Every structure is written in structure tokens, then in C-alpha cells.
Input
Amino acid sequence: MAPSSAFERAGARYRDPAVAAGYDSWRYETARGRRRNRRDLAAVGRALDEVARRGAPVRDGLDIPCGTGRLVPLLAERAIRAAEADISLEMMHVARRKFGPALALFQCSAEAIPHRDGAVDCIFAIRFLFHLDRDGRRRVLAEMRRVSRRWLIVDFRHRYNFRYLGWRARRALGLLPEMQFRFSKAGLREELAEAGLRLAGIYPSRRYLGWFSDKWTVLAERL
Output
């Protein structure tokens, strides 16, 4: 049976060994990809800085889905002990080849993390939640809240950018049959609250040119 949702299609894609093997080369190793990666990691760093300013620095965490280990160098640089998890063994095989046997890896779904309640200081979930529909996001956020003692660092697509304005204009002219979902700040707060979380900070990928990017890195806190 063919995958029926965007999430299932993405999962099936990333379980393809050829896709996993080539993922870094087309996502992060082009000039544009390197720039995007630096911006995204810097936004995660700003969220971690905010956590430290609040007197609760992250000491251990879970990166899910970890993919090929994009966050591993950043977390190691900040002395954060992190386990890496993904539903795709193929992506984790690439991470293992990159970072060696000491990397703590395990396979699971983000909807059913095999950890006790409050197991880690922070859950990291980057380039993931936009694959899910509303019900899927709510289930995953609630599960991440259960496993985290206090913090989540995740990312969302938002509507305060020129791309979204262009979509609205094309939609009004009848040139765009449907628009992809993008969060407002109020909608983001509401969805986080449904999962028992509070919005604690927003960090645009483009720190000073937010209208040129549709991505927010978000710091969320357990209620």
C-alpha cells in the first residue's frame, strides 16, 4: 500500500538507502545549503543561550529525528549529552559512518519514544514537524513533552514572510489552487498549549531579515 500522508511519504523516502547516502550532498554541502545550515544551527544556539540565561542550561537531550546527525557537532560543542533517534535506519547508518561508534543511536517513532517521563532536559526536533498534519503534530508534541523535563527546541514554518504574501496574492488572483499551511503566532501558541507547552521564544533563521525566511526555531516549555 502506498504511503497516504506527507509524513508517511517522507518516512518512506528517507528509508531509501540511495536517498540517505546522498542526503547531505544535496541538502547541506552546496554553497546555499551550507549558508542555510549555518543560519539554522545559529538559531538553535540562540534558543540554547536563552535556556542558559534562565538558569536551566541543557545538559542532556534527545535529537529526534536525527537524520544524518546534523545537530551532533553543535550539541557536542556545547557539552550536551544527546542520544540520536530516527525512524530511518538508513539515515542513522550515514550518521554512524560520519561520527563513529560512540554515537548513541536508536530507532523509534516520534509518536512512541521508549524513554521514561522527564528523561532528558530537552528534545530537539528540526526539519520534522512541517511533515505532519495537525493531529500528528499534537501527538508528537505531547509525546516530546512527556519525555522532556522542561524544554523543546523545534522548528515551524510561519506566514510572516514574502513567500507567504506572494502565495496570498496568487491565491487572490486564482493562480494558486491551494496554499500550504503556515503558522501565525497566535496559532502557534494555541497548538503548543494543546500539547501542554508554552511558547518561550522564537528565533528566525534569518536573524535580521526575518521576512526573507519562512522558518522559526521555537523554544517551548512544559506547562
Notes: The longest strand covers residues 148-157.
